Amino acid sequence: MSRAVVLLSGGLDSATCLSLAIRDGYDVYPLSFDYGQRHKKELLSAKKIVEYYEIKQHKIIQTGNVGGSALTDMDIEVPEYKGLPSIPITYVPARNLIFLSYAVGYAETIDASVIYIGVNAVDYSGYPDCRPEFIEAFEKVIKVGTKGGVNGKPIEILTPLVNLSKAEIIKLACEINAPIHLTTSCYKGDEKACGICDSCSLRLKGFEEAGIVDTVEYIKKGKD
Amino acid sequence: MSRAVVLLSGGLDSATCLSLAIRDGYDVYPLSFDYGQRHKKELLSAKKIVEYYEIKQHKIIQTGNVGGSALTDMDIEVPEYKGLPSIPITYVPARNLIFLSYAVGYAETIDASVIYIGVNAVDYSGYPDCRPEFIEAFEKVIKVGTKGGVNGKPIEILTPLVNLSKAEIIKLACEINAPIHLTTSCYKGDEKACGICDSCSLRLKGFEEAGIVDTVEYIKKGKD
């Protein structure tokens, strides 16, 4: 049974990735980070998802962060969703790069052949490190910069959600019974989701388009 | 004055890089890691080097490690130097990849234009992530996966030591008055350097070839 490291934030996309990896027959090793994110609700969701699947191994890496984002600095306010084309203040510098780098190290250590990451370049917040170009460039780094890569067995990065819309991801998640009722998407991380940040807005729009009811609790759904 | 993030382990090569960055007129931001390495002597050296230059900012990122190396797992023994062509057990999976990823995030946050890293592909331990191919592939990741890269101002990785022999690095360090008397190279990290691990062996050979006396204390110099 091949091993897969699955980057698990606790959000909708990463939970769907974990379910896909299990469906695809991998022995899964979820990997989460406690990186000074604004709230720990996401991490708690990750733990609940791991429990749901009765997975024994869940690596949580405690790590310092480099600041500079509304998701990590408490003195930068989380903005409302505006759908602007620029890179927003919720962008965490090099976050996926750091997470994938750890995943590579972990995969090498436990001899996993693939890494699942739930990046998505359709209904996303405009972060440059969610795009296929980034993943391709990163795979080249694995080929030349790791033991397995140099020896001809590079770890592969799997991005099964990259070309799906949020509605398509939600439909897929329901088909494979991913525990999306346990996920957290809201950037604010209060008990109930705010319903107005980028992440809530994309999630709500996705559920609406998919014609599926989101069972997560919201303070309000959208700006109205 | 442009800012430079300098990866500073506390060893000979990174100390030389820091001195080069200062000589080149950068406002330097040393970045070190407390990653569960076998010993903290290296980190102590990094702190002494920062004090030596009276640098105010020294970011030390506390971070979990992924295991799988003699440099981080206390139950894997540090081997004696044998000069074998294979990748040794002291290889830490994805270490430079993780360090550079953080450096990119930090550089984006503080608006630094370059990152100095003291990788060397001549007198080195055979780690794949010390080679120019790795650095080139990583620069491509920066171009497509970061805010600055996407906006046309990618952070540059500077590797001034990559093609120098250890003897040449030592000569250069002396020319620019790098505080190499404060550095730690030994993998074991006891009070005195062991003199027989890969890192000590390469260092001792370098000093001998350079015709310079290493003022660091050793238990014994070489296997004799």
Structure, explained:
The structure is a homodimer of 224-residue chains. Chain A has a single domain, classed as Rossmann fold (3-Layer(aba) Sandwich), CATH 3.40.50.620. Chain A is of the alpha/beta class. Chain A is globular, with a radius of gyration of 17 Å. In chain A, helix 1 (12-23) links the parallel strand 1 (3-7) and strand 2 (27-34). Helices cover 36% and strands 10% of the residues of chain A. Chain A has a 5-stranded parallel sheet, sandwiched between helices. The N and C termini of chain A lie far apart (50 Å). The A-B interface holds A 59, 61-68, 87, 91-98, 100-102, 104-106, 108-109, 128-129, 131, 133-134, 137-138, 140-141, 143-147, 149-150 and B 59, 61-68, 87, 91-98, 100-102, 104-106, 108-109, 128-129, 131, 133-134, 137-138, 140-141, 143-147, 149-150.
Q: Which chains share the greatest interface?
A: A-B, 42 and 42 residues
Task: Estimate the helix proportion of chain A, in percent.
Answer: 25-40%
The Cα radius of gyration of chain A reads 17 Å
CATH fold assignment of chain A: Rossmann fold
Number of strands of chain A: 5
SSE-based structural type of chain A: alpha/beta
Number of domains of chain A: 1
Q: Return the CATH class of chain A.
A: Alpha Beta
Quaternary: homodimer
On the 0-100 scale, what is the average pLDDT of chain A? 86
Global outline of chain A: globular
- For the terminal residues of chain A, how far apart are their CA atoms? 50 Å
Please, how many helices of chain A?
A: 7
